User: Which sequence fits this backbone?
């Protein structure tokens, strides 16, 4: 068993390593995407700036060819120098139009926008990048980043869901294994104790001279041990039958009031008359289709718990009520109570509140599981309410009501 627990520890380590690996891969992928998009953006801006330099060269070569050909004399010219040559440059609007036609991303402006905007010859104006293409690039980058963020979030969600699923599976498997371990320890104890006790009483009966009174007392004690043994074996068999799907019910119309009082009084008698501190408020004429024996097993388990998990003097209240569609049975005690976070779990197979070492009361964690199986097979449901530890518990059974 320790080996199994160690295997779970190893599985947990593997799980967290895989989770860390996937998480770091995802973070790495996102950082690469962000870096790449920044690099791509910078490249495109650099290309735009290269276009601005080309525009400058374009203007210079136009002026150089003018200087060589000495043209454009007709329009009012402004003298300038290019590469040491004197040239009568065409008017600025003409040059501006020519440049902006050839390089749509460039504009000719009076003052530089950036420190490295190249001046036209003799500093008559500057070549600057238009804001629109840069803004369009910015928008494109923002869109690309959002796309990356969306993909990243989608992948993260997928990874998270997968990991959560595996984690829960792992936890529930470990939980089940631990409960099975507790169960085996409990069953061993539950079966061994009455057998050991019976052996002692048998030896006492056969080896010692006892008075009639003592014999009656030993007989009662042996009866209790047998009862305990019978109940445990019956519960185990019923659970095995429920598992195998062969828990057959013989459904018959049953008037719940008289049946409840008979089962409860029988149980109280077996536990030691008055032990349960029974009080019953049973509505009359409430019927259900039920297998009296199976439903009796469920009720006996609830009453046995009301006995086990409460200290004497006990107060156990059974009420039977009904509306048009349902018969409602409530079994309440003033015992240990059940913390809210445990209330759904106590109906699970093998589940017991607390740790096996700290549990003062012996049990197998099968009683309520069996109750739930039986009640559900009757088309009903069972739940517990308790204000918490030390405040008692109420088990509520709802069964489909039979109209009579
Ligand atoms: P068992 O009693 O054999 O342990 P059950 O399935 O009957 O198994 O009950 C499961 C757990 O629910 C118990 O171990 C106990 O912790 C808790 N429980 C059940 N009934 C009561 C009750 N009436 N008062 C307090 N705790 C209860």
Assistant:
């Amino acid at each position: 068993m320790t080996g199994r627990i160690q295997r779970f520890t190893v599985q947990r380590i593997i799980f967290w390593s895989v989770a860390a690996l996937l998480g770091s891969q995802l973070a790495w992928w996102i950082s690469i995407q962000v870096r790449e998009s920044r690099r791509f953006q910078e490249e495109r801006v650099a290309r735009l700036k290269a276009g601005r330099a080309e525009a400058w060269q374009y203007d210079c070569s136009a002026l150089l060819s003018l200087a060589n050909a000495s043209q454009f004399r007709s329009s009012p010219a402004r003298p300038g120098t290019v590469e040491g040559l004197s040239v009568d440059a065409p008017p600025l609007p003409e040059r501006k139009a020519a440049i902006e036609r050839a390089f749509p991303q460039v504009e000719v402006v009076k003052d530089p926008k950036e420190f490295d905007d190249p001046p036209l010859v003799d500093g008559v104006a500057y070549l600057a990048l238009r804001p629109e293409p840069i803004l369009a690039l910015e928008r494109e980058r923002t869109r690309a980043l959002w796309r990356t963020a969306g993909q990243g979030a989608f992948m993260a969600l997928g990874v998270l869901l997968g990991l959560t699923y595996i984690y829960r599976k792992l936890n529930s498997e470990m939980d089940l294994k631990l409960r099975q371990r507790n169960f085996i320890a409990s069953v061993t104890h539950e079966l061994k104790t009455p057998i050991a006790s019976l052996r002692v009483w048998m030896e006492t009966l056969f080896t010692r001279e006892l008075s009639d009174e003592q014999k009656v007392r030993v007989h009662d004690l042996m009866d209790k041990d047998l009862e305990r043994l019978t109940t445990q074996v019956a519960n185990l068999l019923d659970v095995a039958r429920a598992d195998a799907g062969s828990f057959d019910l013989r459904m018959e119309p049953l008037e719940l009031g008289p049946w409840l009082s008979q089962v409860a009084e029988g149980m109280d008698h077996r536990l030691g008359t008055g032990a349960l501190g029974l009080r019953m408020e049973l509505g009359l004429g409430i019927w259900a289709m039920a297998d009296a024996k199976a439903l009796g097993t469920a009720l006996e388990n609830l009453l046995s718990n009301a006995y086990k998990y409460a200290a004497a003097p006990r107060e156990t209240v059974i009420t039977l009520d009904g509306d048009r569609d349902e018969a409602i049975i409530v079994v309440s005690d003033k015992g240990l109570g059940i913390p809210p976070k445990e209330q759904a779990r106590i109906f699970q197979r093998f589940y017991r509140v607390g740790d096996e070492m700290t549990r003062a009361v012996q049990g197998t964690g099968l009683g309520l599981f069996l109750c739930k199986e039986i009640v559900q097979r009757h088309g009903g449901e069972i739940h517990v309410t308790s204000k918490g530890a030390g405040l008692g518990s109420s088990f509520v059974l709802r069964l489909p009501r039979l109209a009579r």
Summary: The first strand starts at residue 78 and ends at 82. Residues 2-70+86-148 form one domain. Confidence is low (pLDDT under 50) at residues 71-77. The CA atoms of residues 51 and 212 lie 119 Å apart.
